[in-house]
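Sequence only, no structure available. Ideas?
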Amino acid sequence: MPQPLDAAAVRRWCALGREALRAHCARMDAINVFPVADGDTGTNLCLTFEAACEALPTRDTARDTNGDPGAGAALRAMARAALLAARGNSGAILAEYLRGMARGLDEGAGAPAERLCRALRGGASAAYAAVAHPVEGTMLTVAEAAAAAAEAGDDPAAAARRTLDATPDRLAALARAGVVDAGGLGLTVLLTALWAALGEQVPDEEPAAATGAASPAAAEPADSPAAPAALPADGLPQAPRRPEFEVMYLLAAEDPAAVDALRARLDPLGDSLVVGGGEGLWSVHVHVADAGAAVEAGLAAGRPHRIRITHLPTAGDAAGHGATGGPRCAADGPGRPPDPGARVVVAVVPGEGLAALCRQAGAVVLSARSVPAGAAVDGIDGIDEGALVAAVRATGAGEVALLPNDSGLHPLAARAADAVRAAGIRCAVIPTRAAVQGLAALAVHQPDRRFDEDVVTMTSAAGATRYGEVTVAERRSWTSAGICHRGDVLGLVDGDVALIGSGTGQVATEVLDRMLAAGGELVTLVLGADAPAGLAAALERRVRERHLAVDTVVHEGRQHETQLLIGVE
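Reply:
I predicted one. C-alpha cells follow.
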C-alpha cells in the first residue's frame, strides 16, 4: 500500500525525479527519433521538470481545494511553472500531465491508493487532450498504462516499464531505429521516482531494454518519404510541406473558444501540435513550415509572448550526424579537423565590456548589437550564419557550446550548428536570450564534464535567469505596454515591454522591483555606455533596502544600444 500522496511526497518525488532525469538525459537525447530526430527530448524534459520543482512551496502552507494540505497545491504550482518553462513537444506534454495530476487530486479526498489513481488518471487524460493527434507508442501510451495499472490495484511504475519496452511495436519509427520512445523513457523514469517517493520498492535495472543510440536510418524525420509516418487516427493527411520550424509561445487569452479556434487554425499548418494550460494562460507548441503563420494565428487568439522559433533538422542534416547531434564524419571543409577532446564556448555579446568578461571566462567572443524588441531580422550587425559557422570552426574544437545571447540570433545559431555538425563538430545551442543569461551559463560551464551534462547545466542556469533591459525608444511604435514615442525610456522584462517612462532611474527601479517580486538570490547589473552616473549605486541601495539576502554584481558592459541590462537568478 503506497504512502499518502501529500506535499512531502511531492517534494520527495521532485528530488528523486530530478536526479533520475539527469542520469538518463544523455540517453534520452541519443534515442530521440520521434516526432523529429533533433536529439533534445532528454534536455527538454530535464529543464521543464527542474523548473517545475523550483516552484514548490517551501512549507506545507497551501491547501488543496478539498481542504487537505499539500499535494494538489504543490502540483498546481509545479504545473504552472512547467507551463511557463516548457521546452519542446515533451516539455509541453509534461506540463499538462502535471496540471492533470493536480486536477485529479482536487476531485476529493480518499485513501492513498484512490488519490494516486485520480492523480495518474488526471495526468494521462490531460496529456492526451493537449495533443491534437495523439500517437501511440509515445509518452502518452506510458501515461495511460500507469493510470490503468493503478486503477487495477497494480504497480503503475512496473506497468510503465513494460509499456515502454513495447513502444517499438506500436511506432514504426522506433522499430526501425531499434530504440524505445525517448519521451516515454522520461515519463517512466518520473513514474518510477514517484513510486519510490511513495515508499514502494522499485527494481535496480534500467527502465527499458533498448539502450542504444539511434541508427542512421532512424535519424530521418518520421514523416519523410523514406520513413513515412502513420496517419492520425482521423485519417486526415499531414501538411503538404515538411515542417522546418518548432514554434513555441505562451498565449494570454481569456476566451477558451479563441483557443479552440487557434487549435483549428494551427492543425493544418503542421504537426506535433500541443496546446495546454487554462485560466487565461496557455502554452502552444507546433512544428510548421511557416513560422510566421503560426505566430499570426496566436495574435488572432490573444497575446503571444516568449516566442521561441527553432530550426528543425532535415533528412540531410540527420544523414551527417546522429540523434545526439554528435559527429559521425570527419571534417570535409577547409581548416584542420576538429580536436574531439577539446571543448569551447562561443558567445555573441554586445559591448566590449561584456566581451572582456566572457573572454575572461574562457569563451570565444563575437561582438554584435542587440536586436530592438519585436524586430524581425536575419543577421545582426555583421553576425550572420556564415560568421557563426566560421567562428565555431576556427576554434578547432570537437565540442562547442554556442551562446547567441539574443532571440533574433536563435534561428541563425540553429542553422550554424546544423552546418558545423556536418563537419564533425558536436555543437549545441544554449538558448540564451540576453547577455546576462549568457553570463549565468558561463558561470557554471565546466569543460571537464561530459558534454551533454555541461549543456544541460548551462541551459538550466540560463533558463533560471530572468532578464530585463532599460533602453530608449528610437521611434513611435506600439508595444505591449502601450504606445511609446521617440525618446521614451522603455523597461523590458523577459523580452516584453513592461513599462514606459521618462527617466532611466525611475524605469530601472521599477523593472528591478518587478523582477525581484518573484524572488531571487543574485542581481546582475550590466551598465551601458550611456547609463546615467550613479545608476548602479542607486539600484544597489534599492536591493539592500527592499530585498534582504539578495547579492548584487555590477559590470561595465559599455553596450551602446541599451542603458542597462538586468539579470535575476
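Residues 298 and 304 are 6 Å apart (CA to CA).
Hope that gets you unstuck.
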